[in-house]
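Worked example

This section walks through a single chain of length 93. The input is the sequence exactly as stored; nothing has been trimmed or padded.
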Amino acid sequence: MNSHRFGKAFAFGVVLCILLGILCPTGLAQGLTLEAPQPSLEAPSLLSATAPEAPRQHKFLDRKNQALLAATMALNLADFSVTRANLQSGGRD
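Given that input, the structure is written out below as tokens.
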């Protein structure tokens, strides 16, 4: 008798998952749309007058990143100090 109830509950759960999967709007987000991009019929030009510009890169250790790294190190040091003082005085982590 117990396995019969489990079978009904399992079947109900499977049906519920399938219905929720079908009705879920995010599950349908990848469905077909009427505004799908159409391929261009123009032949691409192999001879272009200008080359595309490469994205400009910045130095990793510029002033902004140096400030962020210094702030992170200071906050980690403060956390370490407070935790160490707490543990030495009998507290728990």
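What to look for: Helices lie at 2-23, 63-88.
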